Amino acid sequence: MRLRHCTVLAVVSMVLFAAPVFAAIHQVDITLTTFSPASLTIQTGDTVVWRNNSFLQHTVTSGNSCSPTGLFNSGVLDPDLEFSHTFTSTGSFNYFCIIHCLANMRGTVTVDAPVPVKPTTWGAIKALYAAAQR
Known about the structure:
Elements: H1 2-16, E1 25-31, E2 34-36, E3 39-43, E4 47-52, E5 61-64, E6 67-73, E7 82-86, E8 91-96, E9 106-112, H2 122-133
Parallel strand pairs: 1-4, 3-9
Antiparallel strand pairs: 1-2, 4-7, 5-6, 5-8, 8-9
Helix pairs in contact: 1-2
């Protein structure tokens, strides 16, 4: 009986004090004159890492039609280097390579709001306790 109470207490503690959901990290590969994937959907708080897998230099620069917006800019990335940016607001964010913008080298990151977590109710905790009593 005492073990059952300890088990229920442990379950309730895990439910009440569950660790926060960690933001994800997404990879975009830079090859020749493309970003892969060119279109990416993530959640607020996620980080995108662009890796230059090309023998060419590239940039990752926020903006449209070869016009930077100033939100992020990697500077020149030599081969095998990476650049990361954490997206803190929702929306659609276009980016391009300054060096190859005339070659149509661009991509888009769409940032959605995180999926809300359903809060645990006292009724659900009591139901767990009642199930453990059986």
